[in-house]
Write a structure and sequence with these properties.
It contains 6 helices and 3 strands; from the N terminus they run αααβααββα. The chain is of the alpha+beta class. The radius of gyration is 16 Å and the shape is elongated.
């Protein structure tokens, strides 16, 4: 039995496969892949894979400055790949949803096979 969410995704893919891709969809897809095309952003996504962490911790794990990480987090957030949650003065980041996690997972599997 398929879950409702999976059925919805299948319907979207089927609809897209049965028609031409609009320039809007092509441009959005290209933009997302461009975001994945940066090593620093991949490191950040990998650190967020199963964790919700703050800028300071991401900076420590990636051995980068907090301002450099903040800049990359803005790009990832604009691409809707990550989300932020405020807790007092701290902001914690995590992957936006399971779609992002699956993209990273599938590419990692692909390159390590």
């Amino acid at each position: 039995m398929k879950c409702e969410h999976c059925q919805y995704n299948t319907e979207i893919v089927d609809r897209l496969k049965n028609g031409e891709l609009s320039e809007d969809i092509i441009n959005n897809l290209t933009d997302v892949f461009k975001v994945f095309g940066d090593g620093t952003r991949i490191k950040i996504l990998w650190n967020l894979f199963d964790n919700e962490i703050c800028v300071a911790e991401i900076a420590q794990k990636t051995k980068m400055s907090q301002s450099a990480i903040s800049h990359q987090l803005r790009i990832l957030k604009q691409a809707r790949l990550i989300k932020a949650r405020r807790d007092g003065k701290n902001t914690f980041y995590s992957l936006n949803d399971d779609h992002v996690k699956r993209i990273v997972e599938q590419v990692m599997i692909h390159i390590t096979e």
